[in-house]
């Protein structure tokens, strides 16, 4: 329960602390049959239904005043198919448990995001992604899905079975049904060598296309109020394993990235004038390092400093311009931004409402420490992102609506038509879906 955000007196809260809801009832089904029965009962009682994972979304995508389904008991691996190289897992399985279980089997996902607290269904339904030149989001690695639809029936879909549902439900926003199991493509466990090093922002932007082309997984963090970035390149390696030493790992990941960073955020929140100086110190705190380990130990890192986040996918070709505009805006605004801006990429995919649907994408994420006013910064950043036809992450703060999405997603109508077919009475509706998909 610890990683799941929740509250007292039946109030549910998300991880970021910016969304709260009071469901009429909360259900923790122990099987697909129990879940289907809970959906049928909610429908009979005239209540809406929402499934929630660990509450890592910053939007109200999982909030409901109806029936809240908690999937903690729907966890674990159902089957490992070594001939097909797939693994089928229950929807409530946390990514960190999946990663560890796969590693024990000598298997791995191809790519993953940088946080692994989320459930597999919560992460995929909102389009969670890492960074990759050729390897896409977690949802793009899905080979099959099982979901309970509005009439309480269980639907399985894949490229061969119900392909039109499969095209959309991999990133279904909880609008098409409740996902109960996911089949992922896996591959034999491999090693990644991570090379992290500071680099001036101008150089990263000037050489971005080259850095992207030469590395399987490239990302960087820019520290506002500075001209510094921290870059990270992950590439497959023949080995040998050279994990980060325990002390060095603790200093970098716990002390600097979480401990000192937390203190810096507290100081910055109490005294905003100190933020530019703190940013310069933060940008220099992380030194260059290289290490080699299994994928999830390289791709993911602990995130204990709580924040609120907005992230947009812009066409990859528009990245350098987007970032230059963002820097110019911060420099002239008088804003005090104490959290680095994260930049990642993804190749185009074929999922209806994926942020990378049909176009090579670059992701720009802006964060603010939980409890500091983020409105002015996010509004100004969003103005820049939308000018480049940006698509916001479905689980992160944004102000866009169905009218906007119909413009930036060529297959938007395909998704809403499928929703009309699968959930005509809008059993899975909430305020967020009403805004982003239309009534």
Keywords summarizing the entry:
single chain, 439 residues, alpha+beta, eight-stranded antiparallel sheet, five-stranded antiparallel sheet, 20 strands, globular
Can you walk through the features of this model?
The chain is an alpha+beta fold and 439 residues long. The chain is 33% helix and 24% strand. The chain contains 14 helices and 20 strands. The chain has helices spanning 32-44, 95-104, 120-125, 163-169, 201-206, 208-214, 246-270, 275-285, 295-299, 319-333, 375-387, 402-408, 412-422, 431-437; strands spanning 12-13, 20-21, 25-27, 49-51, 67-69, 77-81, 86-90, 107-108, 142-148, 154-158, 178-185, 187-188, 191-200, 217-222, 228-237, 289-293, 307-315, 341-346, 361-369, 391-392. The strands form 5 sheets. Strands 16-13-15-14-18-19-17-20 form an 8-stranded antiparallel β-sheet, sandwiched between helices. A 5-stranded antiparallel β-sheet has the order 6-7-11-9-10. The chain has a 3-stranded parallel β-sheet with strand order 3-5-4, covered by helices on one side. A hairpin with a 5-residue loop joins β9 (142-148) and β10 (154-158). α7 (246-270) runs antiparallel to α8 and α10 runs antiparallel to α11. The longest helix has 25 residues, at 246-270. The radius of gyration is 21 Å and the shape is globular. 47% of the residues are buried.
């Amino acid at each position: 329960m610890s990683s799941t955000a929740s509250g007292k007196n039946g109030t549910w809260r998300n991880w970021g602390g910016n969304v709260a809801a009071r469901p009429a009832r909360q259900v923790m089904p122990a099987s697909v049959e129990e879940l289907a029965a809970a959906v049928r009962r909610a429908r009979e009682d005239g209540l809406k239904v929402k499934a929630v994972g660990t509450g890592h979304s910053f939007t109200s995508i999982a909030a409901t005043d109806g029936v809240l389904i908690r999937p903690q008991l729907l966890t674990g691996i159902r089957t490992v198919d070594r001939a097909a190289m797939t693994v089928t897992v229950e929807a409530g399985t946390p990514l960190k448990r999946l990663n560890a279980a796969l590693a024990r089997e000598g298997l791995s996902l191809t790519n993953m995001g940088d946080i692994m607290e989320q459930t597999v269904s919560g992460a995929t339904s909102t389009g969670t992604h890492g960074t990759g030149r050729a390897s896409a989001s977690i949802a793009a690695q899905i080979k099959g899905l099982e979901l309970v639809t509005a009439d309480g029936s269980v639907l399985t879909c894949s490229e061969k079975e119900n392909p039109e549902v499969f095209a959309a439900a991999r990133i279904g926003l909880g609008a098409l049904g409740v996902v109960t199991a996911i089949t992922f493509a896996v591959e034999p466990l491999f090693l990644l060598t991570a090379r992290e090093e500071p680099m001036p922002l101008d150089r990263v932007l000037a050489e971005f296309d080259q850095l992207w082309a030469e590395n399987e997984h490239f990302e960087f963090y820019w520290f506002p109020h500075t001209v510094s970035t921290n870059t990270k390149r992950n590439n497959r390696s023949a080995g040998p394993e050279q994990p980060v030493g325990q002390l060095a790992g603790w200093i970098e990941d716990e002390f600097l990235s979480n401990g000192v960073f937390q203190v810096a955020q507290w100081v910055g929140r109490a005294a905003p004038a100190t933020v530019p100086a703190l940013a310069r110190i933060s940008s220099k705190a992380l030194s260059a390092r290289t290490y080699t380990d299994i994928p999830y130990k390289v791709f993911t890192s602990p995130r204990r400093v709580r924040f609120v986040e907005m992230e947009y996918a812009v066409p990859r070709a528009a990245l350098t311009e987007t970032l230059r505009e963002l820097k110019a805006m911060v420099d002239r605004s008088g804003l005090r931004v104490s959290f680095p801006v994260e930049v990642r990429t993804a190749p185009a995919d074929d999922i209806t409402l994926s942020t990378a649907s049909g176009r090579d994408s670059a992701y720009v994420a802006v964060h603010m420490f939980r409890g500091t006013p983020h409105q002015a910064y996010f509004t100004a950043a969003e103005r820049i992102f939308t000018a480049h036809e940006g698509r916001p992450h479905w689980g992160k703060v944004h102000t866009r609506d169905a009218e906007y999405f119909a413009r930036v997603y060529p297959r938007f109508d395909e998704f809403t038509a499928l929703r009309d077919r699968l959930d005509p009475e809008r059993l899975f509706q909430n305020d967020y879906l009403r805004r982003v998909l239309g009534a």
